[in-house]
Amino acid sequence: MQSHDTFPSTDIPHAAPPRPGRNDAEAALVEHYPRFVRLAHLILPPALGRHRRVLAAHALVQKSLAAAAPSRPGRAAGPTVPAQRGEPGQVLAWLRHGVVAAALRAAAHPRWSLGRTPLPTVLGLRLFPRAGGDDELALESTLATVAPEVRAAFALRVLEGLSPQSAVLHLAAAGVPAPDEALRSAERLRTAVGPDAESLLHGAQFDPCTVQARPTDLLRRRHRTRLGAFVAALLVVASTTAVLALRPAPPAPPAPSPPVTALAAASALAADPRLLLRAPADRWADTARVDLTRWPARGARTGDTALLSRALDAWARGTGDRTGVRLTVTPDTPTSPPSAPARLLFAGTVDGSAVVLLHDGERIVRYAEPLTGQGDAVLELARADDADVTAGAAVAVSRTGQGARFLLAPWIDESAVRDLLRPDVPARRLAVSEDGVTDPVAQASDDCRRVPALQVRSSTRIVEDHSFLLADLGELSPAHLTWTPSPGTGVPARQPREATSSAGLAAWARSACELPGLRGTGVRALNRWEFAHQALPERAGRAIWTCTRAETWDGRGRVAVAWEGPDPGSRPVRVPGPTPEDTAACSRFGQHLLAGTYWTAPSGARYYLAAGSRAVTAITARGPVSATVRGQALAVRTKADGQVRLTGTVAGSGELRGWGETEPDSGGP
């Protein structure tokens, strides 16, 4: 990625490039002055303040000429013609090195470095770059939280278009102790920003040469002028009677103010409700990134600065003093305060409470305070990183005895409610307000007489146009339900699909009663995988072996393996074994599975059943039951009891142990 005002990158040694003559350096600097001022401005710490940062960037660039070599005597005088635009040269490399090194020194010791650099004189005015858009402001806030050397590496790669090797050499020549680590951090930041990084850095937010001017405090300036005149008059009167030999003691220097860190500056920005990010109303319909970052701000109170300020203040207090605020945190969700301006999703009145929804890229924050003034406010934090079309389709805004109301994503065209236990009953249309808030959706009953779920359809404007199921598990984001049917032997593995088909609804009707047990556990999505079908002995019908995987927001997966009889109304019987908190089983990286259980036939005869996924070619049972069979299913009549050790053969992968077995097979009973 190379900007329009850069030259092809040239590697430089760890030492600085050779000094050019002062005339050559000045000619190059005059032509590319805005480029180098932008580079210095990006590296300098935002904690300097916008006015001082602009002036410091200009001062550092102008001072870089002082290190150039004196012009050779005898050289013909006359105007210097700069190199043609786009031509590489050591002069530009030398100027770039000087600007980067000076900006890094100033960032490390701003008081000492900038105190020795007289700033351009600007009296009575405050200068600052013009405000950019939401994306530029978000990038500015993010850059304020990283180290100066990371900002320098980011600028060298994006603004200057240098190769990674050239950027590392520039950083090393500027005295950065760990240039490789700084470059890696900059590359992570560059990936997070995306392909718009270069255009954002060339925006108005980062241009210290196109600035706005505002007066300083006029009233305070007038008071200072009067005070200065009065003090001058006193000095004149005092000087007529002073003894010439006396030397007044120098006034004590003012106490230094505590340094303002980049983190403190970023926190101050994050707590300002005027800086909340707001996406345009139709941005979601014309973007390749359909997620929470494209939600517009909705609700009747998006302009209520006092309410937004209270919400941000409650969030900023984090795990500290939360008097009057009840905190709820979904498992594995960071409770740290915001480090950059968040995105406003909603602010309005719902069910007698003022509600604010915020999103900081990784978390959803819900703040609610009662309108009556009685009772504590509520602050909920939940993970929402990588929330896409489905995982970011709805957010809970209110919970009452009647149920939960959800704020639907702007790309949801249709919404309905259905009972997962009754797949043959059509879904009931769900009313939605103009702001996107639904009518209440009832919770699942404790006795599993009903398990409601949202059935929504995405808009054709994002070329998705498909319906999917969302299950409310008591958190801010409902869980996405999918299912995977079992293929035949030799057939390629099937992928999870939406559970809104008749077969998918029938499948989840069997597993729906397991959902309430997952409430409050941080589940993002659930997939029911029917990994094997088995013909039961005595012509008793067909059994289904299932693996239900609950994916959490941190990428971990909880897995439950079950056996289901031929009766459509029967519930799954869980296969004995552990419930691991983090496993690849039943995911795209764990597609081999083998499980077994005892079963009693309608005749009263007892059997041991086992089945494996599509790649299993043979099954061996040892222990109370001893048998070997070729294929994916085993059924042995037995009167034995106790744990059976299973081993499956998988072509190309060796042996597969049965579900719940963690130790290698000993080979004996």
Largest sheet: 10 strands, mixed
Shape: elongated
Compute the CA-based radius of gyration: 34 Å
Strands, count: 26
Question: Strand percentage, roughly?
Answer: 15-25%
Residue windows where pLDDT falls under 50 for at least 5 positions: 1-15, 73-88, 217-223, 236-262, 662-669
The oligomeric state of the chains shown is single chain
What is the mean pLDDT?
A: 81
Which secondary-structure class do the elements indicate? Answer: alpha+beta
User: Could you estimate the helical fraction of the residues in percent?
Assistant: 10-25%
Count of separate DSSP helical elements: 14
How far from one another are the termini?
65 Å
Plain-language structure description:
By secondary structure, the protein is an alpha+beta fold. The chain has 14 helices and 26 strands. The strands form six sheets. Strands 10, 11, 12, 13, 14, 15, 16, 17, 18 and 19 form a ten-stranded mixed beta sheet that branches. Strands 3-7-6-5-4 form a five-stranded mixed beta sheet, with helices on one face. A four-stranded antiparallel beta sheet has the order 23-22-25-26, with no helix packed on it. Strand 13 and strand 14 (479-484) form a beta hairpin. Helix 2 packs parallel to helix 4 (90-108), helix 7 packs across helix 8 and helix 7 (148-158) packs across helix 9. The radius of gyration is 34 Å and the shape is elongated. It starts with 21 loop residues before the first helix and ends in a 12-residue tail after the last strand.
